[in-house]
Design a protein that fits this description.
Distance between the termini: 35 Å
Number of domains: 3
Number of strands: 6
Helix content: 25-40%
Strand order of the largest sheet: 2-1-6
Order of helices and strands: EEHHEEHEHEH
Structural class: alpha+beta
Length: 191
């Protein structure tokens, strides 16, 4: 299954990057927490879905507990969770008030950089199979245009065929849907 990328044009007024084209990853589906635990249990695990869910729930609450105690939490070879503060500035140190000037705390994740499981941006790009969403929609429209002609050529009950979209599996449909509730990490900044 490829990682789908949607190409879009920056339309931010006043941005030096206005008019330039960028790529944005789009997801085909969000896997639920319960579905992830079921998936884990299906990977030749001796533990059932309920046990995996129980362990995952405990892990989740313990990670949050440790973060709120001011610790970073390493998550195996995947990487490290940590908190980051967003704050508004003051003219003098004595004017800074934690209640007023801390605007928010954010959960962050730093991927592992170990050779065994290097999850840095460069390595993820090297490992991923990328596919442009536009190519997927174009291949579908070409297939629809040619369906009438292809139906005449199909013999012996052969109805399948490779369309190149490689969207099989439990994806909740073949058309990628861009999440709207996610932060826009790949949006160019106007700075």
């Amino acid at each position: 299954m490829p990682v789908f990328v949607k190409v879009y044009q920056n339309q931010i007024k006043g941005s030096p990057a206005r008019g330039k084209w960028y790529g944005r990853v789009v997801a085909t589906k969000t896997m639920s927490y319960a579905a992830l635990c079921q998936h884990i249990s299906e990977h030749n695990s001796v533990y059932g879905e309920d046990v995996c869910l129980g362990v995952a729930n405990k892990l989740q609450s313990c990670i949050l507990e440790q973060l709120l105690e001011g610790k970073k939490v390493q998550f195996g070879a995947l990487g490290t969770f940590f908190l980051k503060a967003k704050s508004s500035g003051t003219e003098a140190e004595t004017e800074f008030n934690l209640g007023k000037n801390i605007d928010g705390l954010y959960l962050c994740f730093a991927p592992s950089r170990m050779e065994l499981n290097n999850l840095t941006s460069k390595m993820l790009k090297m490992k991923a199979s990328l596919k442009n969403v536009k190519d997927l929609t174009e291949s579908k429209s070409k297939k629809k245009e040619g369906d009438a002609e292809e139906d005449d050529d199909i013999q012996g009950g052969e109805t399948g065929g490779e369309t190149g979209d490689n969207t099989g599996g439990n994806t909740g449909g073949n058309t990628p849907v861009e999440p709207s509730d996610e932060p826009d990490y790949d949006q160019p900044s106007g700075d």
